[in-house]
Amino acid sequence: MIKPERIQQLHSHINSGELMKFYKSREWMSLRKEALKRDNYECQLCKATGRYHKAENVHHMKEVKTHPHLSLTLSNLQCLCIKCHNEVHDRLESVRAPKFTNEERW
Ligand SMILES: [Zn+2]
Ligand SMILES: [Zn+2]
Known about the structure:
Blueprint: H1 4-15, H2 19-23, H3 26-38, H4 44-48, E1 57-60, E2 77-80, H5 82-92
Antiparallel strand pairs: 1-2
């Protein structure tokens, strides 16, 4: 369990635009691992189309920036390969975001 004060602190990083502090936190790292384990390290979108690809990113279905309170909620996470992750964000965002590498950023 994460202490409420710590959660507040992580949310405040998000709210002040310091997303990297959130993504580098121990709490995110461990939740990210949990999500990967839950999804068998498999890209969930590739899986839905009957393909197999290793998951490389952990995506927030409700974005961290708009839903900070869901940033540490396992059910809001989805494991994706980099290609699917970029496609999801291309669809979500009207302004093109920088391409993802091997790290979840938003
Ligand atoms: Zn994929
Ligand atoms: Zn994402």
